[in-house]
């Protein structure tokens, strides 16, 4: 593939130093799949001056902690609603550089073969991340399992108690929700816990699921939950950060994502 060369930037840096913390090696945090895989492809394309190390995280907390503390110069794992929630809760001075892709959440079951064969009473296992809730209920609504009340806002869904979620929609089913950490969603599915499990796209891919084939229902392609490259605000215009985002938003990466994931990861608009 053609390398993207940013020759006009090279004189701004010594070869081994970065404005992102003046460290010897650029370190970018990411979830394993597909974020780290996409970054590995970016490593093949970016100019030698901006080579970087990928630091993989298995949870949703440490990548932002590490960015705040300066252990990494950027992270690539989260969508805008989660980023905004983290900024509100922790006071992080972070900014999104831009969106790269969407990982559609899927509705999975080892207990039931189709939506048509679901029983009247359902236990649905969901992420315990409040910022995911509007997205999760949206998948259930698109699958015709619930109808969110017209007056219900995303804030209502995010702030509701777990038991209070049912007050925000109508349904022909008797639905009970169970919350687990996002990392435990697949194990609940694999152990046949509950009737349905809503699994984030990256965790599904990381455990060998093929969302297009294995999910009973899949988030629509017009989802606003685009995954973004995030940095400390002071570094948003840093030449390395701009070079990295130029690669991540390039036609070469777009072609690779389409070929590699065949619709299980969707390009941001």
Structural overview:
- The structure is a single chain.
- This protein has 269 residues and is of the alpha/beta class.
- It has 2 domains: 7-104 and 224-267, 3-Layer(aba) Sandwich (D-Maltodextrin-Binding Protein, domain 2), CATH 3.40.190; 106-218, Periplasmic binding protein-like II (D-Maltodextrin-Binding Protein, domain 2).
- The protein has 10 helices and 13 strands.
- It has helices spanning 32-45, 62-69, 80-90, 133-142, 154-159, 185-190, 201-206, 211-214, 239-248, 251-261, and strands spanning 26-30, 52-56, 74-79, 94-102, 106-108, 121-127, 147-148, 169-170, 174-180, 196-199, 217-218, 227-232, 266-267.
- The strands form 3 sheets. A 6-stranded mixed β-sheet has the order 2-1-3-12-4-13, sandwiched between helices. Strands 9-6-10-5-11 form a 5-stranded mixed β-sheet. The chain has a two-stranded antiparallel ribbon with strand order 7-8.
- It is globular and about 60 Å long.
- It starts with 25 loop residues before the first strand and ends with a strand.
- Residues 1-19 have low confidence and may be disordered.
């Amino acid at each position: 593939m053609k390398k993207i060369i940013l020759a006009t930037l090279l004189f701004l840096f010594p070869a081994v130093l970065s404005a992102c913390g003046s460290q010897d090696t650029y370190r970018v945090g990411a979830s394993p799949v597909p974020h780290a895989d996409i970054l590995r492809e970016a490593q093949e394309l970016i100019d030698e001056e901006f080579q970087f190390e990928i630091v993989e995280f298995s949870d949703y907390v440490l990548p932002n902690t590490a960015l705040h503390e300066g252990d990494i110069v950027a992270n690539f794992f989260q969508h805008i609603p989660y980023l905004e929630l983290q900024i509100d809760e922790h006071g992080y001075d972070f900014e999104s550089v831009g969106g790269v892709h969407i990982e559609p959440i899927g509705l999975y079951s080892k207990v039931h073969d189709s939506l048509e064969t679901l029983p009247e009473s359902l236990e649905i296992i969901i992420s315990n991340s409040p910022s995911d809730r509007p997205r999760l209920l949206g998948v259930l609504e698109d699958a015709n399992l619930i109808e969110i009340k017209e007056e219900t806002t995303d804030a209502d869904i995010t702030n509701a108690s777990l038991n209070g979620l049912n007050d925000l929609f109508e349904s022909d089913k008797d639905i009970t929700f169970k919350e687990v950490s996002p990392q435990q969603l697949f194990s609940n599915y694999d152990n046949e816990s509950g009737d349905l499990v809503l699994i984030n796209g990256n965790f599904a891919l990381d455990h060998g699921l093929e969302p297009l084939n294995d999910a009973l229902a899949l988030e629509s392609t017009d989802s606003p939950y685009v995954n973004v490259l995030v940095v400390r605000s002071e570094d948003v215009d840093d030449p390395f950060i701009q070079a990295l985002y130029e690669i991540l938003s390039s036609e070469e990466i777009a072609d690779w994502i389409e070929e590699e994931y065949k619709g299980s990861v969707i390009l941001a608009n």
